[in-house]
Amino acid sequence: MAIDVRIPTILRTYTDGAKAVPGSGDTLADLFTDLETRHSGIQERIVEEGQLRRFINVYLNDEDVRFLDGITTKLSDGDVVTILPAVAGGMY
Q: Which residues lie in coiled coils (predicted)?
């Protein structure tokens, strides 16, 4: 099963600068485990204690996985997973 994973700039140090990498897995949790086998250190930046980190947004085919089944969201061949760090801060 081939899944296209879009990587944000801040995590590209783990993917040798690649904007997108292939992955596989039946769920998001499986996908992140698969990514870790080829891109050491990336999983801990996305997952904490078995859940998505608070300030990391993950989209499956443009849908926020927090409104699906979170890290247990099922994946299918050809899916696109986008990882985005939340943006906050600034002056008021």
A: none
